[in-house]
Amino acid sequence: MFGIGFQEMLVILVVVLIFFGPKRLPDLAKSLGKGIAEFKKASEEVRKGIDEAVRESDNEEPGTDPPAPGDVKGTDPPAPGDAKGTDPPPSAANESPPPPSAPKG
User: Fold this and answer.
1) Residue 38 main-chain phi, psi, to 5 deg
2) Owning domain of residue 44
3) What is 40-74 written as a DSSP string?
4) Rounded Cα distance, 65 and 67, in Å
5) Per-residue pLDDT tens digits for 5-60
6) Assigned domain for 26 exists
């Protein structure tokens, strides 16, 4: 428990007994127990809220997920023997501009 041994716990209890006195010690223990119980309840509520938020984010609308590869709107998947579907079409975006030092014209 928190790396505190029996001897350290005994010293702490003796100091608390001397500081607060035997008359206030039961009230102090009762208050400490209530505080710990409230803290556990609050932390459990926070944990449940976080778990619920994670579940909601996992179960979001399926339309917000990115499409799977090959699942593009308006295109049919290629036939198994179709060679056109294996290579991506050339794109102007993939071409790099000529270096600035190249002569123009």
Assistant:
1) -65, -40
2) 22-57
3) HHHHHHHHHHHHHHHHHHHT--GGGSPPPTT--TT
4) 6
5) 889 989 988 998 898 888 898 898 899 999 999 999 999 999 999 999 999 888 87
6) yes
